[in-house]
Write a structure and sequence with these properties.
The chain is mainly α and 201 residues long. Helix content is 67%, strand content 0%.
């Protein structure tokens, strides 16, 4: 991919739209719910779709990364550098601010704080420093799945794997119920398909 195409302006614009949606949702809906503050007369409940848009973007971007790496470990390195430093700064800042506040329901113990360095505390039933970090667990699990496909050299079969996933999702949703993680999986898959359309495939 050429240097000109190293950044996609439309993708950056979509990220901005998604971020604005999430901010409006949290400050007009979740903020008043958590802090019992009724300063907003309108609750922008549709803002949660910003998170879903982020997952679609992630599916698009991850496959762009896959085409640029030469090994599974390089994929992990690129994702770690992209995600972890920013997460660490935000997590430490959030923990510090919450520790100085009087909202006891938002505070975590030192043990829970240390577990949060893993980015996926909920995997062992530990509270996150900030509830919005639940999306990181989803992202990390998606990265782990892509790493597995790269490691086993099955990444080129992503179309077949995608079809199998959709078939399984449909079956589960009919027999049982539509699990949220299956929902997110379809969003990642949508992003992958959009990437292929963008590449002319």
């Amino acid at each position: 991919m050429s240097a000109i195409k190293s950044r996609i302006n439309e993708m950056d614009a979509l990220r901005g739209i998604a971020a604005i949606l999430v901010i409006l949702f949290h400050y007009t809906f979740k903020f008043s719910e958590v802090f019992k503050f009724n300063g907003f007369s309108y609750h922008f409940s549709f803002g949660h779709y910003g998170v879903e848009l982020f997952f679609v973007i992630s599916g698009f971007v991850i496959f762009m990364t896959v085409e640029k790496v030469s090994s599974p470990l390089e994929f992990v390195k690129k994702r770690w550098i992209r995600l972890y430093p920013t997460f660490l700064i935000c997590m430490l800042l959030t923990f510090t601010v919450i520790s100085l506040m009087h909202y006891e329901q938002l505070k975590v113990t030192w043990f829970e704080f240390l577990v949060n360095f893993s980015m996926v505390p909920s995997l062992i039933d530990v509270d996150a420093v900030d509830g919005v970090y639940w999306t990181l667990k989803v992202e990390v699990l998606f990265y782990a799945f892509i790493f597995f496909l790269l490691f086993t050299k099955q990444i080129q079969r992503y179309r077949l794997i995608g079809v199998a996933f959709l078939a399984l999702t449909t079956l589960i949703s009919i027999v049982y119920k539509f699990h949220p993680y299956l929902d997110v999986g379809t969003l990642f898959l949508m992003g992958v398909m959009f990437y292929n359309i963008w590449k002319g495939k």
